[in-house]
């Protein structure tokens, strides 16, 4: 459900040299190109990616970050944590929900008692409770969601893994992802579709928004930059010069770093982008689809390129 070229720096190169490798998915499996033989090989993993919607991905360094999202299995505000087990009176039998212990994660947000808000991997699922990989601390009245989490493909190791945080909490449920200024950006989650999040600069596992410093992780809602006013439908970058965020009838541009004086300005309040993949980049502009046709952004303006296409 996605096609993503990866630019690989080949080991042992004495001069700058790279090859582009195609990574794609189908039927829940990930496939990568063997650049020597130009064949697509399945990536062996217990994890899957969603196969009923389009997905987006972004390369940072030599890894590919995949915005796997959705397939909400369960949610509630009455989660009870005891040791490493999660239960809720709203669910009589957890085994009937189709929870995948490899692909899904448990997100604990507003918490009670000594429970620590975080994203937890799942060890096992039984009728009476879900066992987590680590103990969040005992507490009741916890808000929880069980859904797919973002994935990381490492072509060197040939592995597909969940994106985990060494600090803070990785956002889940986000269909939009891109790399900008050394950060991984995620956005468009159903529970807050206008909000963007970005990792610590040069640290894809740093998601603690409470830290200070110009390289800290940032959430749009707690930043000086702010967020778009409407649900985002697309997000992409033009190198590290600017980042575009769009709804179906608005376009915003971020310039600079969100933790170091960056600015988010609105380019249009009438024109937007219809879908996460309805755009392309040119040498000095980008083009995109809106309901009325194709548009072109060039030199800070949005111009009508062709109508009724």
Q: What does this 3D model show about the protein?
A:
The protein has two domains: 74-148, Elongation Factor Tu (Ef-tu), domain 3 (Beta Barrel), CATH 2.40.30; 164-307, no CATH class. Strands 7-8-11-10-9-12 form a six-stranded antiparallel beta barrel. A four-stranded antiparallel sheet has the order 1-2-3-4, with no helix packed on it. A hairpin with a 4-residue loop joins strand 13 and strand 14 (159-162). Helices cover 0% and strands 48% of the residues. The protein has no helices and 28 strands.
Care to give the gist of this entry?
This protein is an all-beta fold. It is 0% helix and 48% strand.
Oligomer: single chain
C-alpha end-to-end distance: 25 Å
Strand order of the largest sheet: 7-8-11-10-9-12
- What's the shape? globular
The figure for the number of domains is 2
Roughly how much helix do the residues carry, as a percent range?
A: under 10%
Helices and strands: which structural class? mainly beta
Low-confidence stretches: 305-309
| C-alpha Rg (nearest Å) | 20 Å
Please work out how many helical segments DSSP would assign: 0
Biggest sheet features: 6 strands, antiparallel, barrel
- Helix and strand string, N-terminal first? EEEEEEEEEEEEEEEEEEEEEEEEEEEE
Mean pLDDT: 90
Q: Please give the number of β-strands.
A: 28
Strand content: over 45%
């Amino acid at each position: 459900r996605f096609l993503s070229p990866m630019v690989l720096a080949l080991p042992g190169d004495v001069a700058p040299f790279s090859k582009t490798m195609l990574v794609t998915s189908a039927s829940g499996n990930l496939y990568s190109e063997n650049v020597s033989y130009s064949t697509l090989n399945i990536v062996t993993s217990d994890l899957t990616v969603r196969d009923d919607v389009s997905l987006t991905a972004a390369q940072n360094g030599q890894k590919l970050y995949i915005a796997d999202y959705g397939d909400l299995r369960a949610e509630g505000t009455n989660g009870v944590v005891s040791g490493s087990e999660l239960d809720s009176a709203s669910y009589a039998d957890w085994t009937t929900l189709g929870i995948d212990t490899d692909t899904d994660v448990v997100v604990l947000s507003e918490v009670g008692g000594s429970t620590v808000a975080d994203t937890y991997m799942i060890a096992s699922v039984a009728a009476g409770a879900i066992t987590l990989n680590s103990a969040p601390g005992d507490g009741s009245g916890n808000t929880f969601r069980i859904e797919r989490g973002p994935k990381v493909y490492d072509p060197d190791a040939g592995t597909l893994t969940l994106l985990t945080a060494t600090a803070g909490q990785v956002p889940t449920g986000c269909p939009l992802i891109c790399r900008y200024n050394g950060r991984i950006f995620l956005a468009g989650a159903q529970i807050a579709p206008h909000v963007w999040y970005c990792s610590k600069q040069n640290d894809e596992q740093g998601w603690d928004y409470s830290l200070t410093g110009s390289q800290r992780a940032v959430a749009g809602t707690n930043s000086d930059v702010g967020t778009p006013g409407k649900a985002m439908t697309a997000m992409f970058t033009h190198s590290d010069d600017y980042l575009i965020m769009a709804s179906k009838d608005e376009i915003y541009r971020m310039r600079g770093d969100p933790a170091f004086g960056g600015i988010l300005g609105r380019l249009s309040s009438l024109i937007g982008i219809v879908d996460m993949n309805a755009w392309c980049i040119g040498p000095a502009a980008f083009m995109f689809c809106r309901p009325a046709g194709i548009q072109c952004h060039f030199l800070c303006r949005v111009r009508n390129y062709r109508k009724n296409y």
